[in-house]
DNA sequence: GAGTGGTCTAGACCACCCT
DNA sequence: GGGTGGTCTAGACCACTCC
């Protein structure tokens, strides 16, 4: 029959649009520059606004664009390398790590956290809420869980303001023996989104950490990183110093 | 004035829909069970199909659902814990790690990879394409780059079939001194998507690794993991053995 | 061919930011 | 108030899978 089936896979419009815009961002725009609004862009490319938005959403997911309601769409800077690896970090809150404590309560943790800690179901744990800031931007919201058993020397009468520092101080006095970590994709809950200056549902990288001492889990944390602006770095050798976008590091084989 | 402004923040429909569906998945469905089709679901909830799809997309992003064109929407099992940490892995390809080599060429790497390796711009490197399989499913597509300088003992006359094993064998003979790693969110390119059994643009976790020997970068890799089905684990203590979804580990403070 | 999810359209209104 | 992105609608057609 000899049916030549070249071009038999029509590329979706939004996909083609995305590559066109991606190339344009490289060649015709500077970081921080604002793009034309969505209605104009859609008209210029001859597509519906929803189709254009599909392309913009992907580019935002990949960290190429930043969109803010009421303001506009701007070209995003390269992602920040954020160290979450072992070594330098040591105990959470140690070192000058640009974390800000937002709140601290002693409450019963959800079942999944209790499983992480290996504590009983209904046991209260110290719960510290913190925000990580880099270059003036919030990059992560975290909940740090510390069972009372891990900080036996903690005074009983603590003002809310003194609570978190005291727990962290006691924690740092222990010897850190090891760390566990997991990363997965999630979407920002309303409270995290607010602290990350994003809308609810924004894509985030959820980092779950366990800190060991004496063969037991002394603390655990769940950190929610902005997926659009952050590249998480692990490893003893320190953060990458790469100035390229991840797309550039991938090619067909 | 005393204007009570309760409920002044109307939740988007798709967001409310998402939580309703999420709860229903926990209580009324089993893993692997197929949901009603999108048109029926939309009608049942009294919303447009596009609105329902927005909710389904988020749930798929969070690993709760799996959708396949022409088939339907099913309830996804909990994400697989995939170890990408140091230690056990050692050199890429060492150990019984369920990687399958798909191809191998010697070609000039893109500029970003050359920067990662610290090699010259136009230098050819061994490029090995591999796929990682777990529980019968492809979970990652990888490109492993090895400069010829790292494998000086490599024979010159290699058949395509013998190329990749020979490069890996030479690599494993070196002493691995350290590893660097970074994780960021991306969307699957067409070629990766095909090997991951997903559509182009599907969300992926891109892991960029550098392997050191003799104080230099001996190899580098870019691995593309399915974000919907994988939870990446790091750490010396081995993979987490958590059976909960990440949503369950997060709560308001 | 019937049924599924994926793409696309052309509109509308809303929430938010700025001036 | 005017402009931006965010949400929502009610349709249509396409690509794919399975019977």
UniProtKB/TrEMBL annotation, chains A, B:
SMART domains associated with the record = HTH_GNTR, UTRA
Keyword Translocase attributed: no
Residues in HTH gntR-type domain copies: 11-78
Gene Ontology molecular function terms on file:
DNA binding; DNA-binding transcription factor activity
Keyword check for Transcription regulation:
yes
The record's listing under InterPro entries reads: Bact_HTH_transcr_reg (IPR050679), Chorismate_lyase_/UTRA_dom_sf (IPR028978), Tscrpt_reg_HTH_GntR (IPR000524), UTRA (IPR011663), WH-like_DNA-bd_sf (IPR036388), WH_DNA-bd_sf (IPR036390)
One of its Pfam families is UTRA
Family annotation (PROSITE patterns)? HTH_GNTR
Q: Which SUPFAM superfamilies match?
A: Chorismate lyase-like (SSF64288), Winged helix' DNA-binding domain (SSF46785)
Swiss-Prot/TrEMBL keywords:
DNA-binding, Transcription, Transcription regulation
Q: Which biological process terms from the Gene Ontology are attached to this UniProt entry?
A: negative regulation of DNA-templated transcription
- Annotated protein name in UniProt: Transcriptional regulator, GntR family
